[in-house]
Amino acid sequence: MAAVPTLSEGVITIRPIRARDAKALERELLDNRGWLRKWEATSPHGPMEFDARYSIRGLQVSARSGHGLPFVIEYKGKLAGQLNVSGITYGSLASATIGYWVSERFAGKGLTPTAVALATDYCFFQLGLHRMEICIRPENVPSLRIVEKLGFRYEGLRRRYIHIDGDWRDHFCFALVAEEVPTGVLRRWLDGGVPPANAVVPQGDRLAASRPIL
Ligand SMILES: CC(C)(COP(=O)(O)OP(=O)(O)OC[C@H]1O[C@@H](n2cnc3c(N)ncnc32)[C@H](O)[C@@H]1OP(=O)(O)O)[C@@H](O)C(=O)NCCC(=O)NCCS
Question: DSSP assignment of 135-176, as one string?
Answer without folding.
Answer: EE-TT-HHHHHHHHHHTPEEEEEEEEEEEETTEEEEEEEEEE
